[in-house]
Design goal:
heterodimer; A: alpha+beta; seven-stranded mixed β-sheet; 19 helices; about 25% strand; B: five-stranded mixed β-sheet; Carbon-monoxide dehydrogenase large subunit (chain A); EC 1.2.7.4 (chain A); AldOxase/xan_DH_MoCoBD1 (chain A); molybdenum (chain A)
Chain lengths: ~775, ~170
């Protein structure tokens, strides 16, 4: 089993996590665990209305309440030119509402007091007079010509945020005109929420003597946050230190900048004291970055044998009141064009309309690369619709349409270049391992007895590693990532990276990469992230980008050190540099294995005995701009039984075969797969954030936004194939989001498969028992 | 109100507001920040501690209700610098990722093993069903608790093994 870390050549081994000892001892340092001398506490006042004009705000009673130091309103911020802030998607968002509110729970005022309780008490005393306005919750209605215009601040007087498209429209239409088979399906991916266990929060600590702002924040992207902060506040970047301490889960929820952050900073600037703000669970669920909320229509043109020709997709994307989606600015919703998935479509045409509604803003990449989850779900769902239409087994239909391994690098019809993959092999392994043929026989027998059993397949292709500067940026900043490695005289290493983990195990996996490259053990390497004063600039951890980007930077940075080490080794071995070989453990003279020096010998020499003219020391920095994205894939199979009496779906088996390229730490990869599958399961069966027609959010905490427990969650079976990325320094592709991207379709396909004898072609998520129960009753199935 | 509480073997006398929740008393007044707040609605269990030996969610207990009681938090699991077998098992079985739910999971697991030293998988899942985790998918947490149960059983069986070796087993 795990835990021991001392061995050399650690890559590919289940090294025990270096971060665990502090967590299992209760010694983690999460945001709310930090307390600074003289610290004040902030609480936000939020709107009860989804759309209303603010007639007046009376803060006088709150200001007189015990312990209260300051109350901030939108008008106060406007006087400082801080009433609005930029979003990651080049929109602007109100920090505190001025004029009107645009969604329920929108931030209206901030109260700062000596204690948390005093701030909460005083927030109750802020009196806001509202005049309700017509509410728009349906994104289709929002696009109608008589819909109220929600964003009066925008030049464009409509609720359309953007229209985006990819692929060749004419060529696609042509194929559809002549196709023997066309299937069409409307599919909704509900509004869901990443819901990390630790809510968001920050402590702003402005030192009026030095002019320096230290900002502790639950951040997945501390450097990007510092830049945004600098742009918003006018404080110079080198006077802002962003520290992201241990983060209790992110899943995309801790990428955006939230109004509460800005308010806490303003309060600290005004008061000259540290100000802490920690969200409640309700604030997290109702006002911070939600995900998905796509209304999609897909059509596939195919041959009679099910071979696909073209794909046509139209989508309405509900982004809420402000476009705070975490999309690279070059193409809003761009990764939705991965919608052709694992299949060799000749042509495709994809359109997405982003729409404003009276809902909380967001559209974050929840364990997903900027909309790849919606895309993977749609294509995997609609491939099943096609399979049923042409009467071909869904596994066989997929096999007929896969991009063949010899076609890589594969140029997709919407313009992506897939790096590598072997889809047939992965599906074959999954089918064999689950005993597919036997399961189909069992299903046939059960069907004959009137029982409802379903088998669902999802053979998805992912796209991760955001990335390459030719395609990706956030607010214009290229999405490279970075590593800085220092080898100290005794061969002990501190490595600092521009990403920031939230449970992914970076302290272990990046130590493994670096130790492998340098011939050290992971014990010799400490990985630090999350402090902008010490770490090199990087774009953060989300969208499974850390291993493809920062992992590449770590390997290449270590290799840069190894190049210098080789020169020192030649000097110590008294041979020419060309005669030195590195075998992964030490450097030796060619043909003389007995004459070996280790990295520890070299490290000491780097500070005591370098060749004449060489700069002492042994450290390097590397900014890695990946040449391409990476394309992990997987074959997932779900087996479900449906209770005819209750409509309850039991997931009897679930097998995930993933291919994420080179595996750094199998234990950690498996853990990531388990976690992602659980979130995918939750999305398929339990989660949705609905709104009533007045814009009231109907899932505001974990009593009505369901998170699965150990009793709900199925057991996971896992396996893998390995198709290394040809362009990544160690061949790794990234895995964290794959199970969340690939699994919802497998679950839904299984349920639809179980109900197929009734003529059911599709069910929208979440598949609550009552939804299935209703379908059963509609079809006369009563028990 | 004045309260007297024994926490992890140490007695504290404090003056607390009647409305103060036990979790904030532990975290803010005693500096025991291992116990976390995750949800405010008693849903997530990140704040689970033992109150007189029983697992409770400390966000649903007032500090004053703990007056005269014995409280054990995650910081109390370690004895004389030695990790509890449950803690090592979580490490070995990769029973955590972000670590935020971990203290609550450990305390629920500990409470379960106190009352049921040989739980089945189903009993373990039921035992931690009040604790939510967003990262691990529960399988490894279940494995960890099961592994700890085996280790604890082995450890408690050791003395009797010695007895057996001397030829006077009472089994």
């Amino acid at each position: 089993m795990a835990v021991r870390q001392t061995e050399l050549r650690p890559l590919g081994k289940s090294v025990g996590r270096k971060e665990d000892p502090r967590f299992i001892r209760g010694k983690g340092r999460y945001l709310d665990d930090i307390s600074l001398p003289g610290m004040l506490y902030m609480c936000l006042v939020r709107s009860p209305y989804a759309h209303a004009r603010i007639k007046s705000i009376d803060t006088s009673a709150a200001l007189q309440a015990p312990g209260v130091k300051l109350v901030i309103t939108g008008e106060d911020l406007a006087a400082m030119n801080l009433a609005w802030m930029p979003t990651m998607a080049n929109d602007q968002q109100m920090v505190l509402a001025t004029g009107k509110v645009l969604f329920q729970y929108q931030e209206v005022a901030a109260v700062i007091a000596e204690t948390r309780e005093q701030a909460e008490d005083a927030a109750q005393l802020v009196y806001v007079e509202y005049e309700p306005l017509p509410v728009v919750v349906d994104p289709f209605k929002a696009l109608e010509s008589d819909a109220p215009i929600l964003r009066e601040d925008r030049e464009q007087k409509s609720n359309l945020i953007f229209h985006w498209e990819a692929g060749d429209k004419e060529a696609t239409e042509e194929l559809f005109r002549n196709a023997p088979v066309v299937v069409k399906q409307d599919v909704r991916f509900p509004r869901v929420h990443p819901s990390p266990l630790e809510p968001c929060g920050c402590i702003a600590d402005y030192n009026s003597a030095t002019g320096k702002l230290t900002w502790y924040v639950t951040s997945q992207a501390p450097h990007a946050h510092r830049t945004v902060l600098s742009l918003v506040s006018g404080l110079p970047e080198h006077q802002i230190r962003v520290i992201s301490p241990d983060v209790g889960g992110g899943f995309g929820n801790k990428v955006p900048v939230y109004p509460g952050y800005v308010c806490a900073i303003v309060a600290s600037l005004k008061l000259g004291k540290p100000v802490k703000w920690i969200e409640t669970r309700t604030e997290n669920t109702t006002s911070t970055g939600f995900a998905r909320d796509y209304h999609m229509t897909a059509e596939i043109a195919a041959e009679e044998d099910g071979r696909v020709l073209a794909l046509r997709v139209k989508t309405i994307a509900d982004h809420g009141a402000f476009d705070a989606a975490a999309d690279p600015s070059k193409f809003p919703a761009g990764l939705f064009s991965i919608v052709t998935g694992s299949y060799d479509f000749k042509e495709a045409f994809v359109e997405v309309d982003g729409v404003y509604t009276n809902k909380a803003p967001g559209g974050v990449a929840y364990r997903c690369s900027f909309r790849v989850t919606e895309a993977a779900y749609l294509i995997e769902r609609v491939m099943d619709v096609l399979a049923r239409r042409v009467g071909v087994d869904p596994a066989e239909l997929r096999r007929r349409n896969f991009i063949r391994k010899e076609q890589f690098p594969y140029k997709s019809p919407t313009g992506w270049t897939y790096d590598s993959g072997d889809y047939e092999k992965t599906l074959a392994l999954a089918l064999e391992k689950i005993g597919y043929e036997q399961l189909r026989k069992e299903q046939a027998e059960k069907r004959a007895r009137g029982e409802l059993m379903g088998i669902g397949i999802s053979t998805f292709t992912e796209v991760v590693g955001a990335g390459p500067s030719h395609t990706f940026d956030i607010m214009g900043i290229k999405m490279f990532d970075s590593a800085q490695i220092r080898v100290h005289p005794t061969g002990k290493v501190i490595a600092r990276l521009g990403v920031r983990h939230q449970g992914q195990g970076h302290e272990t996996t990046f130590a493994q990469i670096i130790a492998e490259e340098l011939g050290l053990s992971t014990d010799d390497v400490i990985v630090e992230e999350g402090d902008t004063d010490t770490a090199p600039y990087g774009l953060g951890t989300y969208a499974s980008r850390s291993t493809p980007t920062a992992g590449g930077a770590a390997a290449l940075c270590a290799r840069r050190i190894r190049e210098k080490a080789k020169k020192i080794a030649a000097h110590l071995l008294e041979v020419g540099e060309d005669d030195v070989v590195f075998d992964g453990v030490g450097f030796s003279a060619k043909g003389l294995a007995s004459r070996t020096v280790t990295m520890k010998d070299i490290a000491f020499a780097a500070y005591t005995n370098v060749p004449e003219g060489m700069e002492p020391g042994l450290e390097a920095t590397y900014y890695y701009d990946p040449p391409n994205l990476t394309f992990p894939h997987g074959a997932y199979i779900a087996v479900v039984d449906i209770d005819k009496g209750t409509g309850a779906v039991k997931v009897r088996r679930f097998l995930a075969v993933d291919d994420c390229g080179t595996v750094i730490n199998p234990m950690i990869v498996e853990g990531q797969v388990h976690g992602g599958l659980t979130e995918g399961f939750a999305i398929a069966f339990m989660q949705d954030i609905p709104f009533d027609e007045d814009g009231n959010c109907l899932a505001t905490n974990w009593m009505d936004y369901l998170v699965p427990t150990a009793l709900d969650t199925p057991k996971w079976e896992t396996d893998r194939t390995v198709t290394p990325s040809p362009h990544h320094p160690i061949g790794a592709k990234g895995v964290g989001e794959s199970p969340n991207v690939g699994s919802p379709a497998a679950f839904v396909n299984a349920v639809v498969d179980a109900l197929a004898p009734l003529g059911v072609e599709h069910i929208d998520m979440p598949i609550y028992p009552w939804k299935v129960w209703k379908i059963l009753r509609e079809h006369g199935v009563t028990e | 109100m004045k309260i007297r509480v024994r926490v992890n073997g140490q007695t504290y006398e404090s003056d607390v507001e009647p409305r103060k929740l036990l979790v904030y008393y532990l975290r803010d007044d005693l500096g025991l920040t291992g116990t976390h707040v995750g949800c405010d609605t008693t849903s997530c269990g990140a704040c689970t501690v033992l109150l007189d030996g029983k697992a409770v969610k400390s966000c649903t207990v007032l500090a004053v209700q703990a007056n005269g009681c014995d409280v054990m938090t995650v910081e109390g699991l370690e004895r004389d610098g030695q990790l509890h077998p449950l803690q090592t098992a979580f490490w070995e079985e990769h029973g955590l990722q972000c670590g935020y739910c971990t203290p609550g999971m450990l305390m629920s697991g500990y409470a379960l093993l106190q009352t049921n030293p040989h739980p089945s998988e189903e009993e373990i899942r039921r035992g931690i069903s009040g604790n939510l985790c967003r990262c691990t998918g529960y399988m490894n947490i279940v494995k960890a608790i099961r592994s700890a149960a085996v280790k604890l059983a082995d450890a408690s069986a050791e003395p009797s093994k010695e007895v057996a070796a001397s030829g006077s087993s009472s089994d």
